[in-house]
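Weekly sync, protein design subgroup
Attendees: M.S., D.O., the rotation student, P.L. (late)

Item 1: inverse folding check
M.S. brought a backbone from last month's batch and wanted to see whether the design step gives back something sensible before we order anything. D.O. pointed out we never logged the input encoding, so this time it goes straight into the notes. Structure tokens as presented (262 positions):
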């Protein structure tokens, strides 16, 4: 979700909490502009979720993308940055490690069911220092049970670390629609195409073609969530036709753009 020309990007402050007031803490935030935070970490688990808008969590290993049907699970102590599209309504959760012993120690994107969405929405309205042995405390426990059962989904772009691959990533991240081939990149970077292909597979686990397709499709999510025409989004991220874009989208997400955001 790179900054685009006329869109204003603002810096979001990181909450200055020394400890959590309760084992499950809800944070509500309205972000009218494209926003980002500095790289930081917390001594607690964070669930980044938005009821509208698209979030991206950047870690050292990849970009984790969450439209409203998804959320990003960030383990305690993991350095990360948070990017949000314009008009994002965040409903984040901070979770003490004592109540998340079942969780994986890696960043991941989780599917948010209708029930889980409503639990998060309702929990964001409870008092900060709610009674843990009362109705709000029981709501928090149901919320934890649903988070433990939420399936993981593949909405992550692995980031290359090799310096030449990083140049390709930075260029495509700013302009995903460009059609530069791996052969053309090899000429620019003074390395053989075969070497670049091998480095991509080693560094990201994907071929260059598959990696670029995933980058394009993930970059398309904010515009689709805003309701922009599929044809305009397809052309804007490098596809020659709407049908080709929809086929690729269905392969990646098991749904058409319309089904995915319905």
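Designed sequence read out in the meeting:
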């Amino acid at each position: 979700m790179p900054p685009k020309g006329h869109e204003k990007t603002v810096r979001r402050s990181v909450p200055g909490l020394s400890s959590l007031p309760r084992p499950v803490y809800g944070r509500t935030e309205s972000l009218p502009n494209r926003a980002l935070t500095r790289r930081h970490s917390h001594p607690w688990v964070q669930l980044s979720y938005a009821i509208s808008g698209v979030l991206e969590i950047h870690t050292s290993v990849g970009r984790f993308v969450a439209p409203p049907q998804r959320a990003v699970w960030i383990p305690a102590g993991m350095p990360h940055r948070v990017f949000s599209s314009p008009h994002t309504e965040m409903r984040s959760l901070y979770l003490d490690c004592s109540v998340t012993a079942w969780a994986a120690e890696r960043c991941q994107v989780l599917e948010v069911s209708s029930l889980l969405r409503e639990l998060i929405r309702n929990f964001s309205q409870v008092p900060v220092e709610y009674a843990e042995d009362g109705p709000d405390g029981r709501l928090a426990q149901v919320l934890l049970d649903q988070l433990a059962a939420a399936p993981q989904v593949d909405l992550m772009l692995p980031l290359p670390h090799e310096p030449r691959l990083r140049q390709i990533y930075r260029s495509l991240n700013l302009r995903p629609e460009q059609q530069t081939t791996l052969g053309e990149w090899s000429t620019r970077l003074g390395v053989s195409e075969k070497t670049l292909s091998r480095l991509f597979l080693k560094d990201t686990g994907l071929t260059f073609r598959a990696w670029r397709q995933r980058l394009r499709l993930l970059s398309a999510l904010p515009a689709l969530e805003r309701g922009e025409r599929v044809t305009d989004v397809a052309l804007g991220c490098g596809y020659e036709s709407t049908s080709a874009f929809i086929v690729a989208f269905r392969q990646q997400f098991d749904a058409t753009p319309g089904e995915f955001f319905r």
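Discussion: The chain has nine helices and twelve strands. The two ends are 21 Å apart (CA to CA).
Action: P.L. to compare against the previous round before Friday.
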